[in-house]
């Protein structure tokens, strides 16, 4: 199944791209849950963290480092949140692994 993120990576549908390299792409979320809400998506189709292979470890690390770099570029020195939803109970709606990066307001805890 081709997900919306694969279509964005392939430039079949538009997105506001913040960053891209050989391993991942970062886009603004279409339905932001905070003043700043980006997604960092690996180009390799890993369905979800729960299905990542041991060999995907460098990719998973790269997603977090990229999220940190984007957060600092966006001026989120006051703090930010990184979220990965996994499976239906975890709130995952697109079965292509993605890291949410949220900031720009005081985020509450626990999440819903
Ligand atoms: P999940 O619920 O799977 O953790 O996150 C999926 C995210 O993708 C949601 O926050 C949703 O708003 C975002 N999203 C879904 N479709 C699109 C799209 O076509 N473009 C962009 N930029 N974001 C999308």
Short structural summary:
By secondary structure, the chain is of the alpha+beta class. The chain has helices at about 5-10, 55-75, 85-90; strands at about 15-20, 25-30, 35-40, 80-85, 100-105.
Kindly describe this structure.
This protein is an alpha+beta fold. The protein has a single domain (4-103), classed as HIT family, subunit A, CATH 3.30.428. The protein is 24% helix and 22% strand. It has helices at residues 4-9, 57-73, 87-90, and strands at 17-20, 24-28, 36-42, 80-83, 99-103. A 5-stranded antiparallel β-sheet has the order 1-2-3-5-4, covered by helices on one side. The model has no long low-confidence stretch (mean pLDDT 98). Bound molecules: guanosine-5'-monophosphate.
């Amino acid at each position: 199944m081709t997900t919306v993120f694969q279509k964005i990576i392939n430039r079949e549908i538009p997105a506001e791209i913040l960053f891209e390299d050989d391993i991942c792409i970062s886009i603004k979320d279409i339905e932001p849950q905070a003043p700043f809400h980006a997604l960092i998506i690996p180009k390799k189709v890993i369905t979800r963290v729960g299905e990542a292979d041991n060999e995907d470890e460098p990719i998973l690390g790269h997603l977090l480092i990229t999220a940190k770099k984007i957060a600092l570029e966006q001026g989120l020195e006051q703090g930010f949140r990184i979220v990965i939803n996994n499976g239906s109970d975890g709130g995952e709606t697109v079965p292509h692994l993605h890291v949410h990066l949220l900031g720009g307001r005081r985020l509450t805890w626990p999440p819903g």
